[in-house]
Predict the 3D structure of the following.
Amino acid sequence: MTENLKESSKSQQKKNVFAKIKENIDDKEEQLAFISVVVRLVVIAWSGFIVSLNYISIPGYSNEPKDITFPASILTATLSSFGVDASRGKSQKAKDSVSKSNAVHTQILRIEQAPIKIITEDTNK
């Protein structure tokens, strides 16, 4: 009796992560979606850690700046797959506000009747 309990507990311990997912989630698409989310979270954790290492000083670890372009791009791409957009810098916001203030103001008229005569006034007098 105790041997059966030991064997069943060993068989439960031997199950890998994918077998546990198959048991708990019935639909194949839901299983793939769950695995996809887990992989993306691991990638976010890894790339965030690598990017953070550039700004944190750890004793016994070289503090010289490293090229973090690849992990930063992976972090940005993975975050955007979750719907998180990177914020724009102040210079881009300033350019947008200047371009909006310099925009030409237009007005669209829809006329249902005909004939009509449109006369414009010259404002440069």
Notes: The CA atoms of residues 71 and 106 lie 45 Å apart. The mean pLDDT is 76.
